[in-house]
Amino acid sequence: MSDHVCQKCIDPNCGATFSVDEVLTACPKCGNLLDISYEWDKLPVPKSLKEVEKYWAMRDVPQRFSGVWKFHDLLPFADLEKCVTVGEGQTILQNSRGVAKYTGMNEGNLFLQYEGMNPSGSFKDNGMCAATTHASMVGATRAACASTGNTSASLALYCSCLHTMKAVIFIGDGKIAYGKLSQALDYGAQTLQIHGDFDDAMARVKEVSKKLGIYLVNSVNPFRLEGQKTIMFRVLEALRWNVPDWIVVPGGNLGNSSSFGKAFHELYELGLIDRIPRLAVINAAGADTLFRVFNEEKIRWNGGNTDRAKINAFFKQMNDEGRRANTIASAIEINRPVNLEKCLRALEWCNGVVRKVSDQQILDAKSQVGACGFGCEPASAASVAGTKLLREEGVIAPTDRVVCILTGHQLKDPTATVAYHCGDPKKFDEVLRPHGVTTCAFANNPIKVENDVDDIVRAIEG
Ligand code: F0G
Question: CA-to-CA distance for 219 and 121, rounded, in angstroms?
Fold first, then answer.
């Protein structure tokens, strides 16, 4: 299906287009990022989002069961039958009373979107099914990514299910949570531990995949971001097609925020929604490039006329100072987000804001998600910590309807969780203190007790 769809440079001053049969991760003319662009007037677009509900009764068709491909009409770059699926996108929007209270929202107005419920335990599967669909279309036999852990787990899972493609993953040495590393190894991916951090691994994977002709699935891959649009479609579905006031999302490589912006922009242009929610992107304080670029350098998308010289100067200074990302939220420990410009565009489209939160705020917020719901990994909790901050600032009103995206499963990073709750000073010093965490205010300490019934009863009854 290459009719009425193409790859298009995001820079309106370039606007070059390319066939979807080509394998590209940047515009060959100007080097900027690419979008997947559709001629919607020539495609069968649904008249209302409610039309999707007809697929609820078709769960025996794998692509209709998929929480991504049931929205195929809104990302129609491949024939439906050829779309790869492992059952991704069966995720839940929870109205959380406890987290509403913690963040200062009115009861009923705070929602948690659990993307950790995907097959590999993170939101990445939404994009990976789309990227591997395109990789299959072009006959790729190997696919690669650099990763802080979740992209690699997702790619490894899809390759282990597909059998037609081998996964090659690049991770920063010692920079990955154990749950994620164990997935890549168990799924049989070729796993390269690069001596460096994510930003190094990202630079190397780009070079190596070009050299060896390996298909790259990092979020510079525009097909991946098409799949991630469906997270927003499912949020709308869960809200019975009502638009919330705020989407709050952690920011790392900025793929999610970029794809959310595109999702809402397209839905609005197609007349399928009548307003666009505001977007809040939350950085970890130790990996705050977007925060600095947006709030301090005041760089904007500006209709496509971004001040690139200013961005380049920013990164040059970062290099000169030897600045490296450092946060306990290892998933977002990134200083050179590859989707920076696309995210600036999303912030413009969605009247967005950017905030940063400390590792202390992240871990406290994470404990609340665990105590009041299904739990999440540290990076995901940046969305809850960011909501609390924006409430305190009065930017978000208690009566607003807020959706926090919980990007990864609680079990991805047990080290941080156990160190927070276990009350062991040694673990605290090893795992938390180096990240500036000073207290575990919401710790649920395990109770040490003798192997004796009376002692156990006393411990339980307090
Ligand atoms: N949350 C989690 C759990 C992640 O794994 C990531 C990114 C993000 C948030 C940030 O999302 O990049 O779209 O802004 N993880 C990548 C990886 C970088 O390699 O798994 P983003």
Answer: 18
